[in-house]
């Protein structure tokens, strides 16, 4: 497929928007930090990390107050990076699921990923008062995904309808367990509720390391962009065009649940980013996944970054899942209605 | 070395056998048609060739290489499939869809080359959709979308093209347009196609394979496979086979009647010729009259109709006048009939005996059917035939304009 130049321009625009958003997002918050201080601090820290301290005369030029350094480098930057990467992961996983299921209603959690993650995190909170929560969440998310996969598998094939239905069934079962845990949780209930609604509190550089594999996951998925395009013609047709459909489905399922699993483990289940971003980007760049994947990754990151910035600046740091749902759901209904009119 | 060689394959869906012991082979550049009733396994046979369904038994070879040994990409470079229709989830352009045909040639880390684009352009040109390249596949008509699928298949540069009733959903002009495109490809490409329309199959295919109840029933050239006997055995209805006057290929005509009825009405003899009596013979036969006809030449269209309907017919050699023997047979038929219907046939010296004989039957009811032609009975006897007709009318023969009138009158008498 030839990519028209006009839509190709979307990618550089999105990259600029994301970078600008990241700088702005570090600057704003309860304490506003001047933009030049933000840039200076980041440069200072990066140079120090690479070249070691006091070796460069630029040091004095770039030095900012210790207070701003802490806010920029230790508090806000990790949180901004985590929000961007989690947004990326959710958007790319959503795009993949919608392409795989040939169903625009699919989202990154559709095959039980978020319920599994939620149950894992809740177990960690109830049993170990929150220790190892990301690990538990990730394990729960992947376990749920694989259970659904094995339920739906028959004779080496995974019929898409069965996969969806078993996803729904398992999610219901896991929700029941989750409700039971919450019912018996006592004073941890508040912590569980917060986690379920999703957010980026207390994100440190350690959490950033956890979300870094998202970049690798997105890159690998991109290698299958053309296959996802062809899969949208239907499985039989895709086979005729040389796509190993069953293998492709397994790879895409594994990669997208990996992405969603990491997102869930760090930030809880944040809704609507994975559902909406692919829709909007498809309207702008068209259905070609070679363009759609990078576009949704960039847009998803930007969207979640702004939602998080909004809540921590103006909404007393309430769970970001509330913000994404508040904007996402009405927007989705609008999309649905305008599509019905045409 | 054959492009396709299928040896004794069985295919089943679950516990249900869909194909049993089917063997076939297709030669280089051949168009092979697969025909047969619904549920006879036609589409499944194609799906076995494109490896969508697995086979329980038997082997399939493409150019002497076992089908199982091909990777998905290799197979897509050998075989392209044109489905009946396709629903495309997202809003791709025609060029996007055709370019997908190049997928088996483009590496995972590569993108399309100038050669891929050229191949696509050529395929779109061949399929006559070059002007649609930028349109969305959701905006174009069904016929255009089908041509897009053909272009996509051609972009695969296949050795073998499989068509699964690729034209069934199209009107007759689009069917012919698309099949002409496909026939234009042969030589380089072997085409195997499922057909529902037997006439299209007869015209476009070099050979036909007829399936019945999961098995091969007949194989060969269209004129050997499409016979009244095989069609009756396979489809369970009476179908006439004729030769197309322009193409010389066989074409089939269903007899629109499912089973022989018992015949409650009496004998009627029809005097006709030159095709003027075919529809009447059919109508009488359908209504349940015992019909006879003649005298007719064995090359006459009405004679063909009579034999097709198993109507007894008094015959005469081609281009010969009615002989005394034939006249005797005719007399016997008229004796047995409760009435005689004469159609507006051209009358010459060769067949005038057919009406002259009626002068001798004073009491036999006669109906003269002509649809208002002028002259009512084309007369090539210099007025002799006209005189006989007038005489019959004068004696009480009933003129009728339409077949329905004839049927009404006859039923009243019967």
Automatic annotation (TrEMBL), chain A:
Membrane topology summary: Multi-pass membrane protein
One Pfam family, short name: FecCD
Cellular localization per UniProt: Cell membrane
TM helices/strands, residue ranges: 77-97, 109-128, 135-152, 164-184, 205-225, 251-277, 318-336
GO MF annotation: an example: transmembrane transporter activity
Keywords: Cell membrane, Membrane, Transmembrane, Transmembrane helix, Transport
Cellular compartments per GO CC: plasma membrane
Principal location listed in the UniProt entry: membrane
Highest taxon in the source lineage: Archaea
Family statement drawn from the similarity comment of this UniProt entry: Belongs to the binding-protein-dependent transport system permease family. FecCD subfamily.
Subunit comment: The complex is composed of two ATP-binding proteins (BtuD), two transmembrane proteins (BtuC) and a solute-binding protein (BtuF).
Function, in words: Required for corrinoid utilization. Probably part of the ABC transporter complex BtuCDF involved in cobalamin (vitamin B12) import. Probably involved in the translocation of the substrate across the membrane.
PANTHER family: ABC TRANSPORTER PERMEASE PROTEIN MJ0876-RELATED (PTHR30472:SF25), FERRIC ENTEROBACTIN TRANSPORT SYSTEM PERMEASE PROTEIN (PTHR30472)
Protein name listed in UniProt: Cobalamin import system permease protein BtuC
Organism: Methanoculleus chikugoensis
Record gene name: hmuU_6
UniProtKB/TrEMBL annotation, chain B:
Protein name: Cobalamin import ATP-binding protein BtuD
Alphabetical keyword list: ATP-binding, Hydrolase, Nucleotide-binding, Translocase, Transport
Catalytic activity: an R-cob(III)alamin(out) + ATP + H2O = an R-cob(III)alamin(in) + ADP + phosphate + H(+)
GO MF terms held by the record: ABC-type vitamin B12 transporter activity; ATP binding; ATP hydrolysis activity
Coiled-coil boundaries: none
Alphabetical list of SUPFAM superfamilies matching this protein: P-loop containing nucleoside triphosphate hydrolases (SSF52540)
Span of domain ABC transporter: 4-238
């Amino acid at each position: 497929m030839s990519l028209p130049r006009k839509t190709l321009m979307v990618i550089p625009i999105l990259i600029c928007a994301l970078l600008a958003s990241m700088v702005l997002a570090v600057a704003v918050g309860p304490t506003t930090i001047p933009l030049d201080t933000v840039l200076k601090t980041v440069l200072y820290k990066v140079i120090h990390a690479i070249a070691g301290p006091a070796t460069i005369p630029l040091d004095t030029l770039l030095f900012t107050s210790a207070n701003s350094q802490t806010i920029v480098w230790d508090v806000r930057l990790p949180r901004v990076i985590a929000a961007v990467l989690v947004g990326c992961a959710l958007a790319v996983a959503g795009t993949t699921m919608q392409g795989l299921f040939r169903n625009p209603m699919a989202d990154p959690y559709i095959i039980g990923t978020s319920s599994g993650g939620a149950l894992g995190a809740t177990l960690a909170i109830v049993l170990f008062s929150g220790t190892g929560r990301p690990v538990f969440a990730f394990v729960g998310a992947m376990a749920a995904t694989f259970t659904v996969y094995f339920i739906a598998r028959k004779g080496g094939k995974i019929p898409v309808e069965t996969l969806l239905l078993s996803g729904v069934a398992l999610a219901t079962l896991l929700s029941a367990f989750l409700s039971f845990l919450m019912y018996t949780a006592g004073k941890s209930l508040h912590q569980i509720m917060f986690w379920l609604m999703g957010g980026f509190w207390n994100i440190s550089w350690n959490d950033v390391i956890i979300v870094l594999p998202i970049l690798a996951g997105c890159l690998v998925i991109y290698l299958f962009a053309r296959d996802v395009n062809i899969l949208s013609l239907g499985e039989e047709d895709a086979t005729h065009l040389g796509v190993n459909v069953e293998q492709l489905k397994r790879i895409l399922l594994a990669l997208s649940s990996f992405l969603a699993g990491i997102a869930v483990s760090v930030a809880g289940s944040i809704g609507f980013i994975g559902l909406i971003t692919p829709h909007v980007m498809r309207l702008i760049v068209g259905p070609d996944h070679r363009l759609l994947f990078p576009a949704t990754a960039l847009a998803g990151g930007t969207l979640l970054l702004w939602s998080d910035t909004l809540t921590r600046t103006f909404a007393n740091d309430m769970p970001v899942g509330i913000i994404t749902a508040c904007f996402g759901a009405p927007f989705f209904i609008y999309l649905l209605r305008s599509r019905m009119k045409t | 070395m054959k492009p396709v060689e299928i040896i004794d394959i069985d295919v089943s869906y679950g516990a249900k056998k869909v194909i049993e012991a089917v063997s076939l082979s297709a030669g280089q550049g051949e168009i092979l048609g697969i025909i047969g009733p619904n549920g006879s396994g036609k589409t499944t046979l194609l799906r076995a060739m494109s490896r969508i369904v697995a086979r329980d038994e038997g082997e399939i070879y493409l150019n002497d290489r076992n089908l199982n040994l091909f990777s998905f990409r290799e197979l897509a470079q050998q075989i392209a499939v044109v489905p009946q229709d396709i629903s495309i989830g997202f809003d791709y352009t025609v060029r996007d869809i055709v370019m997908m045909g190049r997928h088996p040639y483009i590496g995972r880390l590569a993108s399309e080359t100038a050669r891929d684009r050229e191949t696509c352009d050529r395929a779109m040109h061949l399929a006559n959709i070059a002007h649609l390249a930028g349109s969305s596949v959701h905006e174009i008509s069904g016929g255009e979308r089908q041509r897009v699928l053909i272009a996509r298949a051609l972009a695969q540069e296949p050795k073998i093209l499989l068509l699964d009733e690729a034209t069934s959903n199209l009107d007759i002009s689009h069917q012919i347009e698309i099949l002409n495109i496909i026939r234009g490809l042969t030589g380089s490409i072997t085409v195997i196609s499922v057909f529902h329309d037997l006439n299209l199959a007869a015209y476009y295919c070099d050979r036909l394979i007829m399936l019945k109840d999961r098995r091969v029933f007949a194989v060969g050239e269209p004129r050997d496979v499409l016979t009244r006997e095989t069609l009756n055995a396979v489809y369970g209805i009476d179908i006439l086979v004729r030769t197309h006057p322009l193409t010389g290929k066989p074409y089939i005509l269903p007899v629109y009647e499912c089973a022989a009825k018992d015949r409650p009405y009496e004998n009627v003899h029809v005097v006709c010729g030159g095709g003027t009596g075919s529809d009447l013979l059919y109508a009488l036969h359908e209504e349940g009259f015992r019909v006879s006809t003649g005298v007719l030449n064995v090359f006459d269209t009405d004679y063909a109709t009579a034999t097709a309907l198993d109507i007894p017919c008094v015959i005469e050699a081609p281009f010969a006048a009615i002989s005394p023997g034939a006249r005797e047979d005719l007399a016997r038929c008229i004796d047995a009939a409760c009435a005689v219907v004469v159609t507006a046939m051209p009358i010459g010296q060769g067949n005038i005996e057919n009406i002259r004989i009626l002068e001798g039957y004073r009491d036999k009811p006669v109906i003269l059917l002509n649809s208002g032609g002028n002259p009512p009975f084309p007369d090539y006897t210099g007025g002799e035939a006209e005189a006989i007709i007038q005489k019959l009318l004068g004696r009480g023969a009933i003129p009728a304009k339409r077949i329905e009138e004839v049927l009404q009158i006859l039923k009243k008498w019967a």
